[in-house]
Amino acid sequence: MNQDNSELLLRSFASVFEGFAFMFVEQEPELEPENPGPCLQADITFQSQDKQGALTVIAPQDLCTELAENILGAETEELPEDAGENALKEVLNVSCGSLLAEKFGTEEVFDLSIPVTGRVSEEQWNNFRRDGRHELFWVDESPMLVQFQSSLQDA
């Protein structure tokens, strides 16, 4: 991923995590994560008149639960079973909007899909980590992978 997109992703996610959940996002390339355990993947697509793409985030379930706790101001026992999944989707949705506004400006109108989630195995996590298309960020010492794809549509 090019350096500009990497910095843009970091700024967008850092702003949203800090504002919504009082959690800090950093990029420390020298740190290599251990197996993060069970993970969730959330994907959102976007489209404008001449651009389309997708934003993906993959995070440990424990991080998603902590995210939900911080957003909702509740303890784990008080949360619905899908609270972590919903918190990850909400952060992805807001981060995507922030990212698009900063990258392409606020004049262009984008349609965003509803975020969808799925489970990620340890093997999948390792493959995503090594593929060179995902940025590794740290959210309060938990690893998180982010991928941004954007292209022009055929006219």
Question: Can you walk through the features of this model?
Answer:
- With 155 residues, the chain is of the alpha+beta class.
- The chain has one domain: Chemotaxis protein chec (3-Layer(aba) Sandwich), CATH 3.40.1550.10.
- 40% of the residues lie in helices and 28% in strands.
- It has 4 helices and 7 strands.
- Strands 1, 2, 3, 4, 5, 6 and 7 form a 7-stranded antiparallel β-sheet that branches.
- Helix 1 crosses helix 3 (83-104).
- It is globular and about 45 Å long.
Contiguous uncertain segments of 5+ residues: none
Backbone shape: globular
Q: Output the radius of gyration.
A: 15 Å
Mean pLDDT: 92
Going by CATH, what is the homologous superfamily? Answer: CheC-like
DSSP helical segment count = 4
Spell the H/E element sequence: HEEEHHEEHEE
N-to-C CA distance: 25 Å
Write the layout of secondary structure elements.
Elements: H1 3-21, E1 25-26, E2 39-47, E3 51-60, H2 61-72, H3 83-104, E4 111-112, E5 116-120, H4 122-130, E6 135-139, E7 142-152
Antiparallel strand pairs: 1-6, 2-3, 2-4, 2-5, 3-7, 6-7
Helix pairs in contact: 1-3, 2-3
Keywords for this entry:
single chain; 155 residues; alpha+beta; Chemotaxis protein chec; seven-stranded antiparallel β-sheet; 4 helices
Brief summary:
The protein has 155 residues and is of the alpha+beta class. It has a single domain (3-26, 40-152), classed as Chemotaxis protein chec.
